[in-house]
Amino acid sequence: FPSHDMGEIREEKFKGIENIQFMKGRSSECLPVFFNEIGHGDFFLFLDAHWQNSWPLRSELDCVIDAGYKPFIFIHDFDCGHEGWQFDSYNNHILNYDYIKDKMDLIYGVDGYVFEVSQESQNEPSGGVENKRGCGFFYPKI
Fold first, then answer.
1. CA–CA separation, 120 vs 80, rounded Å?
2. Could you give the CA distance from residue 132 to residue 123 in angstroms, rounded to a whole number?
3. How many CA atoms lie within 13 A of 32 on its CB side?
4. DSSP letters spanning 113-138
5. pLDDT tens for residues 92-141?
6. Do 69 and 106 contact (CB within 8 A), yes or no?
7. Could you report the per-residue pLDDT of 34-91, keeping only the tens digit for each?
8. Using CA atoms, how far apart are residues 36 and 16, in angstroms rounded to an integer?
9. Rounded to 5 degrees, what are φ and ψ at 24?
10. Alpha carbon distance 128, 89 (integer Å)
11. How much is the pLDDT for 4?
């Protein structure tokens, strides 16, 4: 978590739930530890790790590539192509399919995955302003 206080709040909220484990550190350091601990690729990976000047998405996807796993991957704040929806951008890069296609091709193989986007948004208004943000969904073809 970018904020120590936010991490503590989340840990307290989920205290006592046995199947939740918190790791503190950079995602590019924690993901390999997580992958090693579970020892398989049958999981959902929700990526929303960005904070101010840090946008480690491509390095997180490199961790998946290095592990050789093909999980279901959900990426929040994704450009879904819906008018009025917000999405992330950083250093003149928009968080969209073109930005990560090369990584997905390495994870799943070219034409070896399904790509979908959110069709509706459940985000709460922020400061009274509607805040629609979507997700990109990636998973192996069956």
1. 10
2. 6
3. 8
4. EEEEE-SS--PPPBTTB---BEEEEE
5. 888 999 999 999 999 999 999 999 998 877 666 666 667 788 899 999 99
6. no
7. 999 989 989 999 998 666 677 899 999 999 999 999 999 999 989 998 888 888 888 8
8. 23
9. -110, 130
10. 23
11. 53
Three-state helix/strand/coil letters over 39-87: CCCCCEEEECCCECCECCHHHHHHHHHHHCCCCEEEEEEECCCCCCCEC
Instruction: Determine the residue type at 123.
Output: N
pLDDT at 1: 43
Paired tokens of 83:
């008018």
Contact 87, 134 (CB under 8 A): yes
Q: Do 47 and 74 form a contact (C-beta atoms < 8 A)?
A: yes
The mean pLDDT value for 15-28 works out to 84
The structure tokens listed for 29 are 């350091």
| Contacts with 131 (C-beta within 8 Å, 6 or more apart), sequence order | 86, 123, 124, 125
